[in-house]
Design brief:
By secondary structure, the chain is mainly β. The protein has a domain of 59 residues. Helix content is 4%, strand content 22%. Strands 1-2 form a two-stranded antiparallel ribbon. The longest helix is centred in the C-terminal third of the chain and has 4 residues. The chain is flat, with a radius of gyration of 18 Å. The termini are far apart. It binds zinc ion (ZN). The site of zinc ion (ZN) has 8 residues, from loops.
């Protein structure tokens, strides 16, 4: 198997993702903002942590599947390598 790996993706076979709220099919990148208090911030100072997600271009809805896995449930954690050490309270 020395052939160069080439991945041809047939987008006609791919699922269209639409807004779960209004069925619009275009999205724009927005950011969730998390405030990390000085008590739990790795720097010891309060920090704002932007989390990029995609929101519906028409109504602003954010599909659940676009949210970081850590934000879909009740446990909220920043998407950093030290997530196990940090706990955000909402
Ligand atoms: Zn929408």
């Amino acid at each position: 198997m020395n052939e160069p790996q080439q991945v041809n993706v047939d987008l006609s076979q791919a699922e269209d993702i639409v807004c779960e709220n209004c069925k619009n099919y275009t999205f724009q990148e927005v950011a969730l903002m998390k405030r990390l208090s000085a008590l739990v911030s790795p720097t010891g100072k309060e920090a704002l942590v932007p989390i990029p997600v995609f929101a519906c271009n028409a109504c602003g809805w954010i599909n659940a599947r676009f949210l970081p896995a850590s934000m879909r449930g009740t446990a909220i954690a920043p998407p950093s390598a030290d997530a196990s050490q940090l706990k955000l309270e909402v």
